[in-house]
Specification:
Elements lengths: L15 E2 L9 E7 L3 H15 L3 E3 L8 E6 L4 H13 L1 H6 L4 E6 H6 L2 H5 L5 E3 L7 H9 L4 E3 L22 E5 L1 E2 L10 H5 L3 E2 L2 H13 L4 E5 L7 E5 L5 E6 H9 L6 E5 L8 H9 L6 E3 L7 H6 L6 H14 L4 E8 L6 H14 L3 E6 L7 H5 L6 H24 L5 E9 L6 E5 L5 E5 L8 E9 L3 E10 L4
Parallel strand pairs: 2-3, 2-4, 4-5, 5-6, 6-7, 8-11, 11-14, 15-16, 16-17, 20-22
Antiparallel strand pairs: 1-2, 9-10, 12-13, 18-19, 18-21, 19-20, 21-22
Helix pairs in contact: 9-10, 13-15
Length: 477
C-alpha cells in the first residue's frame, strides 16, 4: 500500500494517540485510531461526547482511566494489529484493575461479544452507530459488568455533535457528510460494520465548515464511504419535499462559505460520479482539482465478481470526463491484487489500466478475505500468497514510475500551496499541498501555517515537489 506521499506503508494506518487537553482533576481518556479517515473523524465525535462527561484526553496511556481503540476491519492485518495492541495494555490492566479498555468501530461491530470472550482485558465493545451510548456503557463497567452496544442505525449521523479536533495541525479538518454504504462490494465488510447509507443535513455540514473557518482552519475534507450518493431531502412543515440536495449541490454550498476555504472529498464511486460533480469542481477555484477514484481491478470479469457496478469502459469514460472538464486534475485510486480467481491475463488488464491512466497516487493491497462478505461465501480465495505478493510488488513498482512521471510534470510551474506545517525531513522547510494533492516543500522564511503561498517548483523527489515562494496571500490576519 502507498500513502499519499507514495511511501509503502502497512495495510492498516499506524494508530495515533490524539491529544486535546491536559486539564488536571478530570478523568483521562487515551484514544487510538486505526484505518480510514472516517475512523479518525469518528474518534473526534467520541472525544466530544466524553469531554462533555468530564473526560480530557491524554497522550500517555499509562495515566489513562479509559483507553479506547477505534478499529478497522477491512483487512486481517488491521485486526491483528489491534489484538497486538490490546495485549500491550494487559500488564497495565493487571496493575490498575480500575482501568477501562474499550474497542470501538468496525472491528467491534464485526466481532461483537467475541471480543469480550477472547480478550479478557476488554470491558467495552461499541459499534460506529452507538457512540452516544458510551457514557452509559462506562457506567455499566464501573458497576462491575462488561458492556456492549453494536446496534446499527438507519438514522444516526451525529449531525448535532461538534467534533473535538484531535491531533490537528489547526489548518485541515474532516467533515463527515454521510454514514454507511449501500454498494455491497463482494470483498468489503463496510456495509455490515457501518450499516446502510444515510446523509447528513446539509445545513449542519455548512455550519461545521463555517465554524472551522472562523477557528482558523483553511481546508476541509468531506467524508463518506461513497460521497457521490449523498442525497438529502429538505422538507417543509407538511413533510413535502422542497429540495433534494445532491453531492454537487452540497459541495457548492460548502465552497461558498469562503473562497479561502479549500474543499476536498473522499471517496467517490466510479459508478455514481456524475458530470455535475465535475462541473462544480471546475466552477469553484477553492474546490481542489483532485479526485480519488478507486478502480480495484482493470478486468471486467473481476469487477463483476467484486460487484463493483461498473465496467472498465465506464471507468475510463469517467477518467476522460475528469480530464476534459477539469484539465490537470490529480487522480488517485485503490487497487486489489489476487482477488478470487484472478488469472495472469486478468491481472494484466489492471496493469494496462494503470498504464493508460497513469495515476498520481495509488493505495494498493493484496486481497484479504473477510468473514461474512459475499466473496467469502461465494468464491474461493484461490490465488496463492506468493502470487498475490508478486503482483502487488509489480504494481507498486509501476506506480512508483508513474508517480515520478506525474510529479515531474509540476516542475517549472507555480503552485498555490496551503501551508500545513513543518516538513517531516527538515525543520527549516514548510510543507503543504497543491490543488492536485501533491506535497510541496519550501524554505520557511517568515511564513506561517494557514497561509496560501505561490511556490515555483524547481526540484522534486519521487512524490514531492521542492521549490521557493514567489508570492503569498495571507489566508487570515
Amino acid at each position: 500500500m502507498f500513502d499519499t506521499n507514495n511511501k509503502v506503508i502497512d495495510e492498516s494506518r499506524q494508530g495515533e494517540a490524539l491529544v486535546i487537553d491536559k486539564t488536571t482533576g478530570e478523568k483521562k481518556l487515551f484514544l487510538e485510531s486505526y484505518g480510514c479517515a472516517m475512523n479518525f473523524s469518528d474518534s473526534e465525535i467520541v472525544a466530544s461526547i466524553l469531554t462533555g462527561k468530564g473526560y480530557s484526553t491524554t497522550s500517555d496511556y499509562e495515566e489513562a482511566d479509559l483507553i479506547l481503540i477505534n478499529t478497522c476491519a477491512i483487512r486481517e492485518n488491521a485486526e491483528q494489529r489491534v489484538r497486538g495492541r490490546l495485549r500491550d495494555f494487559s500488564s497495565l490492566k493487571r496493575k490498575n484493575p480500575s482501568l477501562m479498555i474499550g474497542v470501538m468501530g468496525c472491528m467491534a461491530e464485526r466481532l461483537k461479544e467475541k471480543l469480550l470472550e477472547e480478550e479478557k482485558l476488554v470491558d467495552i465493545v461499541v459499534g460506529p452507530d452507538a457512540y452516544r451510548d458510551l457514557p452509559s456503557l462506562i457506567e455499566t463497567v464501573e458497576g462491575g459488568q462488561k458492556a456492549v452496544n453494536v446496534l446499527l442505525s438507519r438514522e444516526e449521523t451525529y449531525a448535532d455533535i461538534s467534533p473535538v479536533r484531535l491531533g490537528t495541525n489547526g489548518v485541515t479538518a474532516f467533515i463527515s457528510i454521510m454514514r454507511g454504504c449501500d454498494n455491497m462490494c463482494s470483498f468489503c465488510v463496510v456495509p455490515f460494520t457501518r450499516g446502510r447509507e444515510r446523509s447528513r443535513d446539509p445545513e449542519s455540514i455548512v455550519r461545521e465548515a463555517l465554524q472551522l473557518f472562523e477557528n482558523g482552519y483553511r481546508e476541509v475534507t468531506l467524508l463518506g464511504q461513497n460521497v457521490d450518493s449523498y442525497k438529502f431531502e429538505i422538507r417543509n412543515p407538511k413533510s413535502e419535499i422542497q429540495e433534494v440536495v445532491s453531492f454537487a449541490n452540497l459541495m457548492e454550498r460548502v465552497a461558498l462559505v469562503s473562497p479561502e476555504l479549500r474543499i476536498r472529498f473522499s471517496t467517490s464511486n466510479p459508478g455514481d460520479m456524475t458530470d455535475d460533480v465535475l462541473y462544480t469542481i471546475a466552477k469553484y477555484e477553492n474546490i481542489c482539482d483532485y479526485v480519488h477514484l478507486p478502480v480495484q481491478s482493470g478486468n471486467n470479469e473481476i469487477l463483476e465478481r467484486m460487484n463493483r457496478g461498473y465496467t472498465r469502459e465506464w471507468y475510463l469514460n469517467r477518467i476522460e470526463a475528469i480530464r476534459e472538464i477539469i484539465p490537470g486534475c490529480g487522480i488517485s485510486t485503490d487497487i486489489i491484487t489476487g482477488f478470487c480467481g484472478e488469472t495472469d491475463e486478468q491481472f494484466a488488464d489492471t496493469v494496462s489500466m494503470m498504464e493508460e491512466v497513469k495515476y498520481e497516487f495509488a493505495y494498493m493491497f493484496k486481497y484479504s478475505e473477510r468473514p461474512g462478505t459475499l466473496a467469502q461465501r461465494k468464491y474461493t480465495d484461490d490465488v496463492s500468497e506468493e502470487i498475490k505478493q508478486r503482483r502487488l510488488a509489480e504494481i507498486i513498482s509501476l506506480q512508483q514510475k508513474h508517480s515520478s512521471i506525474k510529479v515531474k510534470e509540476g516542475l517549472g510551474k507555480v503552485h498555490r500551496v496551503l501551508i500545513e506545517g513543518i516538513s517531516k525531513k527538515s525543520k527549516e522547510m514548510f510543507s503543504g499541498r497543491n490543488t492536485q494533492n501533491t506535497t510541496v516543500v519550501f524554505p520557511k522564511e517568515n511564513f506561517r501555517k494557514g497561509q496560501y503561498v505561490d511556490v515555483l517548483a524547481t526540484d522534486c523527489t519521487i512524490a514531492t515537489l521542492i521549490g521557493k515562494v514567489v508570492s503569498e496571500e495571507f489566508a487570515h490576519s
